[in-house]
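Table S2 (text version). Query chain:
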Amino acid sequence: MKPSFPFLIVVEGATDKAFLLSFLEAEIVITNGSEVSRETIEYIKETNRTRDVVVLTDPDSPGKRIRDVLDQNIPGLLHAFVPKEVSIKNHKVGVAESTQQAVLEALSHLTPSKTTKTGTLTMADFLDLGLMGGPTSSKKREIIAKKFHLGFGNAKTILQRANALGLNKKELEEALS
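Corresponding structure-token output:
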């Protein structure tokens, strides 16, 4: 029996949708790539008024662009991130190239949209922790992103997502040690 999810899941394409429906019971809407149509945005916005919407896009630049477009137009979205290292097959990166386990794990660790900031972390905290401005900063951000299911991103992106989860400096220090 397939697990059932009560929220709307937003993915990039038909392949992603077919992959998810092979092991999930859920309503899934596709964006057809990074040029998200006004109709799709309006449908997601309307749905978001009555139930949660989870954005599950590919762990690459176009996937981030779609997340950004949706966040700018629809407040209060939730985000799920599949790790890039388990989402590559045949020189393609994507949700459909991921595994069922990675998707289920991502859907069990949702991150609120950056517009719902609740944390107090600052860029100064990131500097102190070596999460930016140093030769190992990128690797340290990967550790934080993996531990807290934040997806990939630069310092600003990871800071926004960490604040959206309400993480604090001590939690990041512990994750890095």
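Notes on Table S2: Strands lie at 4-11, 25-30, 53-55, 78-79, 88-89, 92-93, 111-112. The first strand starts at residue 4 and ends at 11.
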